[in-house]
């Protein structure tokens, strides 16, 4: 299991959500969520944003080694947390804090 996968699983479980429920909400197959959580696959940038939106957590929770952050960082505008309105280049800027 990789760090991102572990953080996805921990965050999903904290929300009392099954892999199947998360998969449905981000519109992927439930096998994809299992692959992310076991480290067999790594989600792309847009998928990470969707997961974070559904679980109501900041991207740093998935990307960092600690799961203690639950607040949206002040330097990132709230609208950047809505992946439906972001294109791919905006997602990369968001994840690299070039906002």
TrEMBL record:
* One annotated GO molecular function: DNA binding
Q: Which domain of life is it from?
A: Bacteria
Higher taxonomy: Bacteria, Bacillati, Bacillota, Bacilli, Bacillales
Translocase as a keyword of this entry, yes or no, is no
Q: What is this protein called?
A: XRE family transcriptional regulator
Which UniProt keywords are present, listed alphabetically?
DNA-binding
Family matches, as InterPro entries: Cro/C1-type_HTH, Lambda_DNA-bd_dom_sf
Is rRNA-binding included in the keywords of this UniProt record?
no
Q: What organism does this protein naturally occur in?
A: Cytobacillus horneckiae
Question: Per its UniProt record, what Pfam families does this chain match?
Answer: HTH_3
HTH cro/C1-type domain: residues covered: 8-62
């Amino acid at each position: 299991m990789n760090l991102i996968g572990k953080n996805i699983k921990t965050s999903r479980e904290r929300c009392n959500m099954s892999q199947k429920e998360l998969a449905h909400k981000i519109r992927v197959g439930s096998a994809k969520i299992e692959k992310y959580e076991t480290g067999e696959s790594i989600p792309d940038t847009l998928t990470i944003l969707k997961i974070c939106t559904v679980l109501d957590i900041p991207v740093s929770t998935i990307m960092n080694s600690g799961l203690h952050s639950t607040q949206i960082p002040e330097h990132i505008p709230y609208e950047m947390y809505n992946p439906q309105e972001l294109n791919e280049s905006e997602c990369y800027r968001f994840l690299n804090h070039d906002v």
